[in-house]
Amino acid sequence: KNQVEQSPQSLIILEGKNCTLQCNYTVSPFSNLRWYKQDTGRGPVSLTIMTFSENTKSNGRYTATLDADTKQSSLHITASQLSDSASYICVVISGGSYIPTFGRGTSLIVHP
Amino acid sequence: DADVTQTPRNRITKTEKRIMLECSQTKGHDRMYWYRQDPGLGLQLIYYSFDVKDINKGEISDGYSVSRQAQAKFSLSLESAIPNQTALYFCATSDPGGELFFGEGSRLTVL
Question: Of B102, B75, B38, B86, whose CA–CA distance to A91 is shortest?
Fold first, then answer.
């Protein structure tokens, strides 16, 4: 069964600090992996996409990594801002069915 | 205007009532999805459709039905609502690369 596990479940940091969120997956065959940001009560919005051949990709203060061998991804947030407070969801697309498999998300709270 | 529009945004109803949540999109995507979100459980797939007249069950389809009336429209029905269907429901489309585009959500409360 395809699964996506995220850690930690929740995280509290001070404004200006960095943090790293983790995603482990068992989806096979693999097509791509995306990180989404979901503000409270809103629909998720895509931050980054990682394909099999990519190791690192940045989008502003967000940097995603992918290790396809160990089936792990991380999302690093640099110099956090209050607006980064949200749920971050890891989604893996299967290369067979193209059905997305969702992680449960990491709830990030940034305190001033 | 939003690319994926859900109506209603909020609905309170009573047990055993029939409810329909509607979704329309202007993205031109063939693939559409309905998800349910409960606190702490993430997004769960209810139904998905890869084309008009293509309907597939997701992981939690019991108690729900869908209709894909056109490429742009995908509606979710609860034939006889029950309290544990109280949740936030999201419609989404996806492009050929798999990027999902979500609506703003429909919050349903069943009393």
Answer: B102
Q: What is the 3-state secondary structure (H, E, C) of B73-102?
A: EEEEEECCCCHHHCEEEEEEEECCCCCEEE
Instruction: Using a CB–CB cutoff of 8 Å, tell me whether A100 touches chain B.
Output: yes
> In the 8-state DSSP scheme, what is residue A52?
T
pLDDT digits (tens, 9 = 90+) for A45-101: 999 888 888 899 999 999 999 999 999 999 999 999 999 999 999 999 988 778 899
Chain-chain contact of A43 with B43 (C-beta, under 8 angstroms): no
Residue of B nearest to A37 (CA): B102
pLDDT value at A24 more than 90: yes
Torsion angle in degrees (nearest 10) through CA of B69, B70, B72, B77: 10
> Do the Cβ atoms of A32 and B105 come within 8 Å?
no
